[in-house]
Amino acid sequence: MPKRSWRFSSLKHPIALDSPGVKLLLLGNEAIARGAVEGGVEIAASYPGTPASEIVDTLALIAEDLGIYVEWSVNEKVAWEVAIGGALMGKRSMASMKHVGVNWVIDPLIHCALHGFKGGLVLISADDPSGHSSATEQDNRYAALLAEIPVLEPSNIQEAKDFTALAFEISEELKLPVMVRSVTRISHSKGSVILGEIRKVRKDPSFHDDYYFDFVLKKGFAGADVIPDAHRLLHEKLAKAGKVCEKYGLVKVIGSGELGIVASSVAVSYALDAVEKLGIVDKVSLLKVGMSYPLLEKSIAEFLADRDFVLVVEEGEPFIERFLAGIAKDVNPKIRIYGKLTGHLPREGELKPHLVTELIARFAGVDVKVFGGFRENTLSELTRLAEGMLTPRIMTFCAGCPHRATYFALKRAIKKVSKGEYVAIGDIGCYTLGMNPPFRMQQAVFGMGGSIGVANGVAKSGTHLPVIATIGDSTFYHAGIPALINAVFNQSNVKVLILDNEVTAMTGFQPHPGSGETAMKKPTKKIVLEDVVRACGVDYVKIVDPYDLKKTQEIFEEALKLNGPAVIIARRLCAEEYVRRARREGIKLRYYTVNEEKCTGCRICLTEFGCPAIFWKEDVKKAAVNPTLCMGCGVCAQLCPTNAFEVVS
Fold first, then answer.
1. Residue 47: which of 81, 65, 73 has the closest Cα?
2. For 240-258, how does the pLDDT look when each residue is reduced to its tens digit (9 = 90+)?
3. Which of 11, 46, 5 is nearest to 29 (CA)?
4. What is the CA angle 376-380-384, rounded to 5?
5. Strands 591-594 vs 645-648: parallel, antiparallel or unpaired
6. Is 536 marked within a binding site?
7. What is the annotated signal peptide range for this record (predicted)?
8. How far apart are CA 4 and CA 595, in angstroms?
9. Rounded to whole angstroms, how far apart are CA atoms 43 and 87?
10. Which has the closest alpha carbon to 440: 472, 408, 479?
11. 398 known member of a binding site
């Protein structure tokens, strides 16, 4: 029996606990971090991005105690390259990131699959079906297929830990990078986890000529003949993955009933839960796929051989479903495969437990209502009732957010300079919320760093309108620099607004190159934003404080009248981070109130500024301030035409 009690002692996080058998309640990403620890990780790198951020957040807390190097890299590509470098020196290394981060990694990922490393090399992809915290949804099993590397898919929090640790072993056995694909409902769910042993082996770093360069040395040159040899070896290594899959039990059948279900990732948990609730455990056989690429064709063929049909439930695209069709044509051509390709489950959005339950119930001949399941009409009714009880709200900036003041000043400047006409391309971060009312300051967003590059093209289209790119400080370090150089090099008439709140705020206040602190809380040199901008060749560089509305608007007006690239850096610490620091230091925040005798009820503070700390008092037709939300930025007092906002110390 596993132990049920433990003490923190001096640990900064329980994932550092060296007590095999202890059971902990962990977030999925914490479990992945613990799996990396048990797998003997020595180098871990990442760029913040939901739903992956907590992996390195957690590892950074215990890194120094366990002799692990952890960093927030400038972007995901660099993070993966850091991990490659560690593995090249024999160190078990890992890079973790959200699904769109893998897009940045594709080039070095495909390259390194052709190479071989002494140290285990693991890529954690935290996919975000439905795009809860993302601009897109994508299934990164296809990225692994493109790179030809194995993919493990944990189905619960325990496996999130176990599969991460196992990924290092498989990587070293096959001499290949291994992807562990999590999804939001794994990364951001909590579950009980039984701890395993921590691998304490630490090897001295030593460079190793990888297989690719072995081919180069044998042939005496790096030419076209080398690439097919390396690719052939990659296919030989992938062919061995089946035995590895069998060795670690990554594909197994649960149950012995006639109704066949093939499932992976969190869909395994949904299916097993549904089968239990429907009371049909004895009627179902579930093929649990823990390694979704390359598939263990032998086990799958055996599962498909004597069935009339199977159901396929998986999170994301019909990845496994497509492979099943190819396998079935040789072993059971008449079998019917039902899933996303047949329209029995939606291809868009994340998989819902009630949809899995209804699918299984339908093919099992069971009324889903026997256990109180939700049909679509029931869910619609619940949604309608909830909407009647809740106030409609859109996502908006926090109270006191400097980005709100920045957009307010920019919008007024545009109205004055170009009668409110403009083209603004946004980027990825808190400031993306500027596309929502009341500002509507971005017409398009195309991914990290895309604002400046796309704005370059818009400016070259011949438009007479002001062209504006809005990008955050962390995003600028991540991917904005090349596009800004391009704007200078090609003389694009682009105005770049860098919203600098001094942290990577949206993902959890992680440091970036301009913060002066590393992931492991070590002081480091600040990469000064304006120095980088000037080094890119920009002549017009201005720094403004968004809380000074008048000055900020003046600078925007000046920049909009210029011909050529210009950069305005709107710098003010993130309001939430400011409040956090003030609380830690025991500083009592001031707040504002409305003098009702001065307030005329013009509603500018509500309709044009939209601070959530300001609300409307219907009984007196006046604005008011919620003192529990107000953090005392004072911008409302500057924009009020009647000076109705007054500070309360």
1. 73
2. 998 999 999 999 999 999 9
3. 46
4. 170
5. antiparallel
6. no
7. none
8. 58
9. 9
10. 408
11. no
The amino acid occupying position 405 is: A
Contacts of 21 (CB under 8 A, 6+ apart): 2, 3, 194, 195
- Residue 429's nearest CA partner among 400, 467, 397 is 397
Please check the confidence at residue 555 and state whether its pLDDT lies above 90: yes
Tell me the per-residue pLDDT of 12-49, one tens digit each, with 9 for 90 and over. 899 999 999 999 999 999 999 999 999 999 999 999 99
Is it the case that residue 3 has pLDDT exceeding 70? no
Q: Which two tokens stand for residue 122?
A: 């693991």
Considering only residues 125 and 116, tell me which one the structure prediction assigns the higher pLDDT: 125
Q: Provide the residue ranges of all domains of the chain, joining segments of one domain with +.
A: 14-208, 250-388, 402-581, 588-648
Give me the pLDDT at residue 319, please. 98
Q: Answer yes or no: same fold for 14-208 and 250-388.
A: yes
Q: Which residues contact 326 (CB under 8 A, 6 or more apart)?
A: none
Give pLDDT, residue 5.
Answer: 42
Dihedrals φ, ψ of 381, to 5°?
-65, -45
Total-model pTM: 0.91
Q: Which CATH superfamily is domain 14-208 in?
A: Thiamin diphosphate (ThDP)-binding fold, Pyr/PP domains (3.40.50.970)
Q: Which H or E element spans position 182?
A: strand 178-183
401 is in an annotated binding site: no
Give 377-398 as a DSSP string.
Answer: HHHHHHHHHHHHHS------PP
Residue type at position 279: G
What pLDDT sits at residue 223?
60
Q: What CATH number labels 402-581?
A: 3.40.50.970
End-to-end CA distance of the chain: 58
Residue 8: per-residue pLDDT: 46
Instruction: Quote the pLDDT of residue 502.
Output: 86
pLDDT number for residue 118? 85
The answer to whether the Cα torsion of 183, 186, 187, 193 is positive or negative is negative
DSSP character string of 54-81? HHHHHHHHHHHHHT-EEEE-SSHHHHHH
Query: Considering only 3-7, 106-110, 259-263, which range has the smallest mean pLDDT?
Result: 3-7
Rounded to an integer, the average pLDDT of 192-219 is 77
What residues contact residue 13 under an 8 Å CB cut-off, 6+ apart? 30, 58, 61, 62
Q: How far apart are CA 85 and CA 78, in angstroms?
A: 10
State which fold the 250-388 domain adopts: Rossmann fold (3.40.50)
- Give me the phi and psi of 547, to 5 degrees please: -70, -10
Task: Kindly state the average pLDDT of the residues 590-615.
Answer: 94
| 50: Cβ contacts below 8 Å, ≥ 6 apart | 98, 128, 132, 133, 134, 506, 507
CATH class for the region spanning 588-648: alpha beta
Asked if the model's pLDDT at residue 377 lies above 70, the reply is: no
